[in-house]
């Protein structure tokens, strides 16, 4: 009947017409010769760009273009002055820090940066209704805990001296305080704009800071567009930065290949596919500060004997693991501390000796050891490899994949027997890396239960010292104890990550985990117009 | 009849309420503390306790549920734990995206499915029939995430015809529509063919033929209308499946729809968002179920309400 | 509604005629052989695999099909052909066992709803609606958590996720059957409910049950593939085809064959069951014979 014919005609037309009006190339901007636009692809953090309320590195990439803190950790993993004019003066008892702000800095809305904004920022952090999550990094400021428990509305430990100077008093001497201030969680917000924004702060285009860029557009679903901050005191290299949200990793790389984005992380899971591809020359590797290790539950009867733990370590050939299985995206670990950290020392490689391992197991009466590992979906692949290594020495390990929420609960409840862990500090310091995991109180919340009084003593002492060379010696000792003598965990490798950047993208560097685009530049002469 | 309809609607509301209760219950017995997940690895127990209290999560589960229910009935679905925005707002945004994808997939599925099904039935047992049915079977047999990835590589990357991901332009919806719609086109074509065939053999068709009506008139006029019932059943089920989002397709194509939202918020134990999502899914399923039920009575008044034909 | 036709189902002759009709359907017969072949492969797996499916040779990973490994190797250097053969075992068992569970539950619920009617029907229909409207993934997570991981629990989880369609159809069947004079006579003639159900209703429902099981198996296999894709299916190092497709996704460009093999295996198996189900439906349906 007429209907059917019409249907067929319509379908044919649609099929023919599709490629005509569907222009996949619509994504690629025809670059005007002098306009520098960077398109960066990342997952959508789906969180407000308010770094007091989350600890997400994807948010940091966005927010750190706009807001700045007193200090920052640069991409060489060294701390730098940003809004602070100089390193603070510290009182003799180590409790009072006096800061001076740089002169003449204004926010992107024109308002000047003063000590009042600093005080506002910290008071906001400690106001319960903000629901800030990173307070543990700064709550040694006197008065912070009182504010958090609702007993105070003003931060007594932060005193304004004048417009550009203020002092902070701590409740105990903590040598990591200035280091913590270099993390983006403590970036300074403008008192007026931020309090007016209320719950909207960090959503849409509502974010004001002293940084090189400001937000032009943000639909919170597909992309965020940044443009130069005209009030920035320095030089912003790019005219525009488009952060495009692509949650699926393979899709993101397909977009990179198609030329729709200029820069993005090349996730380790995808590395194997691209290392010999057309874009292999675009790959840049970097070493973050973390360590990947096997976490053992030292309270578990099956793992209590040190010979068992040593045997498990002897079963793994870290060289093959890193070179062949991981395709070089890992460097065999020789201890817990990462090469960039204080206290790291080059040691001998861990031995690979399955025969000796079997011997140790039978000595310990564990010849038919059966282990149960709980892993998240993303950790599964490596543990299948480890499962095989253990099978060669007669150890059967069940690898059970559990959902994220369940894993987290079990981990912190201390009920996982053995699992994969990649532990990354926020900055290059052994305290932030080792103390936070293996100090006995912390280890009990990580299904680890390492409890060595001498180790605890070492890391607590180092935490309070300010002389780095002294601290290094203590951390070195502690690491040796943890990983060589006690086998409190089984270090596997230091991970290597990589990103891909088009040839015309310059100055991109990654120090640890956050992709900072602040210094990136584009050489337009290398860009081809499409 | 109106009395029966009221009864159905009351039942529907009951289903939705029970589902909300079960969801709440599940999210509270399955381990996974949203506060722990939110605060990250370094947070201290102190901070966790404080935020837990702030969010009212230390109250007894039943109280929490009643609190949520009370707000929900007033239209307030609460605020997402992680995204700190109203649940309705987030669901609304995601829904517009999913709706676009769902509608285009569904239209594609109906057009191709019904079209192929009729053609196959008309040419029953001839080559065209067998060919179309093999394609249909292949369509419902292949994992749809697999098809999605293949489409991306061939049409997005190699040929540059369509965008690979996102929903920025109209064209961006094409590959996901094909990936999503193929499966439903296949199932609808099969059921259309089957029920057309069944009906064609019925006596009243022979009567119509005997009356001298043309073949096409018989097909479209009589056979199709009577074949509609099973088609409506399957198409109805497919409609609710499509609308509740294909998580896998949305993941692969990076589409910010309901399926993807749901997938992410379950892993995070973002309770208000999960509840909101579950409510949405339940309401859609229930509405479609009601619609299908009512369509039955329109198509064939002889059918007893509540009794279902194959 | 042809009462006589329904009563015919009770006779042996009915099934003989059906078998005859089925034999004439070439496509369905091919599929039947494919299904039998796959079952044979699944049973004989330990004997026919060229390598141990879990044997890792990292240095030989991601090789394309070659003389030593007919379908190539995966990211651990394991032989893909061997893993596909074992995967047949797992996928078929997942499909068959979970569908068996779904069918038993579905039949039980459907029959009770249709047969006892009124309040029982209302309650069961309500339960069916709740199960059917519940989001698949959330349900899967909850069930897998409560039961724990492991193949047996996967069977149960998938069974619990898919009984509602069978229940609805059986309920419809029973509602129609209740009307027939034959059944009315059985009920009046005395005999416990169980007897009526098992002796008279069940045989008349075979048609529906066979169809839903045959069509439910491929659906269960696909569900398992989806669950594996989302990280919830069989636990490593077991190789269900679904988890192989999921694992292969990361190598889809550098080692495309890796995802083709299990993908094709799924398609062939699912197609075979679907076409067989179609053929069975045609052969068994009394309305189609005239």
Name some characteristics of this structure.
heterotrimer; B: 310 residues; mainly alpha; MetI-like fold; 2 domains; 13 helices; disordered C terminus; C: 290 residues; 12 helices; 0% strand
Walk me through the structure:
- The complex is a heterotrimer of chains A (530), B (310) and C (290).
- Chain A contains 17 helices and 21 strands.
- In chain A, strand 8 (213-218) and strand 9 form a beta hairpin.
- With 530 residues, chain A is an alpha+beta fold.
- In chain A, helix 9 (306-314) runs antiparallel to helix 11 (354-363), helix 14 packs antiparallel against helix 16 (453-464) and helix 16 packs antiparallel against helix 17 (468-485).
- Chain A has a 7-stranded mixed beta sheet with strand order 8-9-10-1-11-19-12. Chain A has a 4-stranded antiparallel beta sheet with strand order 4-5-7-6, covered by helices on one side.
- Chain B is mainly α.
- Chain C has 290 residues and is mostly helical.
- Chain C contains 12 helices and no strands.
- Chain C has helices at 3-8, 12-24, 26-48, 80-116, 118-133, 136-147, 151-161, 164-179, 181-188, 193-229, 241-248, 256-284.
- In chain C, helix 4 runs parallel beside helix 8 (164-179).
- Classes of the chains: A alpha+beta (530), B mainly alpha (310), C mainly alpha (290).
- At the A-B interface, helix 1, helix 7 and helix 13 of A face helix 2, helix 3, helix 5, helix 7 and helix 10 of B.
């Amino acid at each position: 009947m007429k209907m059917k014919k019409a249907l067929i005609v319509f379908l044919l037309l649609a099929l023919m017409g599709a490629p005509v009006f569907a222009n996949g190339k619509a994504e690629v901007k025809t670059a005007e010769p002098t306009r520098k636009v960077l398109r960066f692809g990342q997952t959508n953090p789906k969180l407000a760009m308010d770094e007091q309320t989350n600890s997400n590195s994807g948010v940091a990439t966005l927010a750190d273009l706009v807001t700045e803190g007193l200090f920052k950790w640069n991409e060489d993993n060294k701390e730098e002055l940003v809004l602070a004019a100089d390193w603070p003066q510290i009182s003799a008892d180590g409790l009072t820090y006096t800061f001076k702000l740089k002169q003449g800095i204004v926010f992107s809305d024109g308002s000047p940066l003063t000590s009042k904004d600093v005080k506002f920022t910290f008071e906001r952090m400690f106001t319960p209704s903000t629901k800030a999550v990173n307070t543990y990094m700064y709550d040694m400021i006197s008065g912070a805990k009182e504010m958090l428990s609702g007993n105070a509305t003003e931060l007594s430990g932060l005193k304004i001296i004048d417009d550009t100077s203020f002092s902070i008093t701590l409740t105990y001497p903590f040598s990591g305080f200035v280091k913590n201030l270099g993390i983006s969680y403590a970036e300074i917000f403008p008192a007026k704009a931020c309090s007016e924004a209320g719950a909207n702060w960090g959503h849409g285009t509502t974010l004001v800071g002293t940084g090189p860029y400001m937000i032009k557009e943000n639909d919170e679903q597909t992309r965020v567009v940044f443009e130069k901050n005209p009030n920035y005191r320095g030089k912003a290299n790019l005219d525009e930065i488009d952060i495009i949200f692509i949650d699926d990793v393979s899709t993101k790389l397909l977009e990179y290949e198609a030329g729709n984005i200029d820069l993005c992380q090349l996730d380790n899971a995808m590395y194997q596919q691209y290392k010999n591809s057309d874009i292999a020359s675009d790959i840049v590797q970097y070493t973050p500060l973390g360590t990947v290790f096997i976490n053992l539950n030292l309270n578990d009867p099956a793992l209590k004997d040190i010979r068992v733990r040593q045997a498990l370590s002897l079963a793994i050939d870290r060289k093959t693991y890193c070179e062949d299985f991981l395709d070089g995206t890992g460097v065999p670990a020789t201890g817990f501390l990462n090469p960039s950290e204080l206290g790291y020392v080059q040691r001998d490689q861990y031995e690979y000796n399955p025969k000796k391992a079997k011997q140790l197991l039978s000595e310990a009466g564990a010849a038919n050891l059966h282990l149960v590992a709980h892993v998240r979906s993303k950790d599964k692949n490596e543990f299948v490899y480890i499962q095989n290594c253990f099978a060669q020495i007669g150890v059967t390990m069940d690898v059970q994949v559990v959902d994220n929420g369940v894993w987290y609960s079990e981990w912190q409840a201390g009920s996982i027997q053995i699992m994969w862990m990649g532990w990354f500090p926020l900055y290059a310091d052994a305290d932030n890396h080792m103390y936070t995991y293996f100090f006995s109180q912390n280890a009990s919340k990580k299904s680890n239960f390492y409890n060595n009084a001498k180790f605890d003593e070492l890391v607590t002492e180092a935490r309070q010292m300010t002389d780095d060379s002294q601290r290094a010696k203590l951390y070195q000792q502690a690491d040796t104890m943890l990983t060589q003598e006690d086998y409190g965990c089984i270090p596997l490798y230091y991970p290597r990550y990589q990103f891909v950047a088009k040839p015309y993208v310059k100055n991109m560097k990654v120090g640890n985990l956050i992709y900072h685009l602040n210094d990136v530049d584009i050489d337009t002469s290398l860009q081809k117009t499409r | 009849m109106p009395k029966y309809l009221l009864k159905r609607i009351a039942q529907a509301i009951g289903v939705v309420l029970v589902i909300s209760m079960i969801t709440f219950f599940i999210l509270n017995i399955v381990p996974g503390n949203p506060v722990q997940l939110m605060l990250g690895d370094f947070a201290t127990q102190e901070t966790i306790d404080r935020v837990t209290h702030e969010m009212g999560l230390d109250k007894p589960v039943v109280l929490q549920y009643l609190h949520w229910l009370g707000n929900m009935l007033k239209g307030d679905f609460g605020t997402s734990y992680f995204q700190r925005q109203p649940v309705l707002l987030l669901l609304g945004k995601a829904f517009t995206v999913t709706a676009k994808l769902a509608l285009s997939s569904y239209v594609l599925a109906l057009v191709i499915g019904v079209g192929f099904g009729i053609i196959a039935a008309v040419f029953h047992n001839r080559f065209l029939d067998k060919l179309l049915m093999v394609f249909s079977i292949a369509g419902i047999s292949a994992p749809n995430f697999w098809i999605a990835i293949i489409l991306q590589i061939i049409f997005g990357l190699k040929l540059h015809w369509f965008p690979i991901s996102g929903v920025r332009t109209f064209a961006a919806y094409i590959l996901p529509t094909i990936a999503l719609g193929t499966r439903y086109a296949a199932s609808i074509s099969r059921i259309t063919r089957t029920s057309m065939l069944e009906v064609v053999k019925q006596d009243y068709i022979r009567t119509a033929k005997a009356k001298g009506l043309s073949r096409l008139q018989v097909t479209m006029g009589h056979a199709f209308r009577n074949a509609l019932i099973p088609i409506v059943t399957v198409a109805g089920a497919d409609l609710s499946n499509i609308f509740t989002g294909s998580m896998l397709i949305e993941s692969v194509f990076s589409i910010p729809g309901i399926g993807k939202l749901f997938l992410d918020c379950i892993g995070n134990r973002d309770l208000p968002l999960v509840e909101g999502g579950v409510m949405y899914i339940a309401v859609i399923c229930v509405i479609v179920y009601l619609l299908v039920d009512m369509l039955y009575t329109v198509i064939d008044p002889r059918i007893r309400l509540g009794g279902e034909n194959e | 509604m042809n009462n006589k036709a329904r009563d015919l189902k009770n006779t042996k002759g009915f099934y003989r005629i059906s078998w005859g009709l089925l034999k004439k359907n070439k496509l369905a017969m091919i599929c039947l052989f494919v299904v039998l072949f796959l079952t044979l492969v699944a049973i004989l797996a330990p004997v026919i695999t060229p390598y141990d499916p879990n044997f890792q040779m990292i240095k030989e990973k991601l090789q394309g099909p070659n003389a030593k490994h007919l379908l190539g190797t995966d990211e651990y250097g394991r032989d893909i052909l061997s893993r596909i053969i074992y995967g047949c075992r797992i996928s078929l068992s997942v499909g068959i066992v979970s569908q068996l569970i779904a069918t038993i539950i579905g039949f039980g619920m459907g029959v009770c709803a249709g047969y006892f009617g009124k309040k029982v029907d209302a309650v069961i229909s309500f339960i069916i609606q709740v199960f059917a409207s519940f989001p698949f993934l959330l349900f899967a997570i909850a069930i897998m958590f409560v039961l724990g991981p492991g193949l047996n629990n996967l069977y149960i989880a998938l069974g619990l996720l898919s009984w509602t369609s069978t229940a609805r159809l059986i309920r419809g069947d029973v509602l129609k059957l209740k009307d027939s004079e034959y059944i009315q006579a059985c009920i009046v003639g005395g005999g416990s409910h169980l007897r009526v159900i098992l002796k008279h209703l069940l045989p008349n429902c075979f048609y529906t049950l066979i169809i839903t099981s045959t069509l439910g198996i491929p659906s269960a296999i696909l569900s398992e593939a989806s669950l594996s894709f989302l990280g919830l299916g069989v636990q490593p190092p077991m190789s269900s085809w679904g988890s192989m497709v999921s694992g292969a996704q990361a190598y889809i460009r550098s080692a495309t064959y890796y995802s083709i093999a299990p993908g094709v295996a799924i398609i062939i198996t699912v197609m075979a069951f679907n076409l067989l189900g179609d053929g069975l439906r045609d052969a068994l349906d009394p309305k189609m014979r005239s």
